[in-house]
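User: Predict the structure for this protein chain, please.
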Amino acid sequence: MSQPSETDVQQIFDRIAPVYDRFNDLLSLGQHRIWKKMALRWCEPKQGETWLDLCCGSGDMTALLARQVAPTGQAIGVDFSKELLAIAANKAQNYLPSIQKSLTWQEGNVLNLPFADHSFDGATLAYGLRNVTNIPQCLAELRRVLKTGAKAAILDFHRPSDPLIQSFQDFYLDRVVVPLADRFSMTDEYAYIAPSLARFPIGSEQVKLAKAAGFSQATHYAIANGMMGILVLQK
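Assistant: Here is the predicted structure, written as structure tokens:
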């Protein structure tokens, strides 16, 4: 399967928006929330800072950021899916007023971010890097908008080095993810996960790409028996 175009990916996420949260919870048994909190611990957002959450989806990670930088800081969630941003904004209405004041939603493309150089104290990107059509350009844009010394944490799927875990991951995608997607009438939309994972650089390759983009430090941590990974960067 060839890599989908940027427009194809955008349309996929617009279509899956109504079931995005429910599907993520079912796929990970709620573990994705724990992994997002782990990613934040590695990049240490602080009260009063301004942080960027790229490919924010329905805004879970952005909300976690807002809780850490509130009440005087700002967490900006960026996504190219209008449908997911609408869901994120709707969910935010249930947050505490202090959290709501620290949240901003903005439609945007991670390959051409609508922000000035050196704008942010840090950034997160959860389950989005695997879907961008140009990873080096995305990393370069991320570095551009970060302040010197700023950290970023990138959470995504990972291909395990252990053959047994790799077999389990393949089985899970084929026998659990796709049938589950079929229940939601989203088979075609979620069938792209396995091919996208096959194309996605492993941790050591992500480190090389990050350093080539100009980051001074890059470390990849394999979690969940190597099926997930967190790339921690510093400008």
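The radius of gyration is 17 Å.
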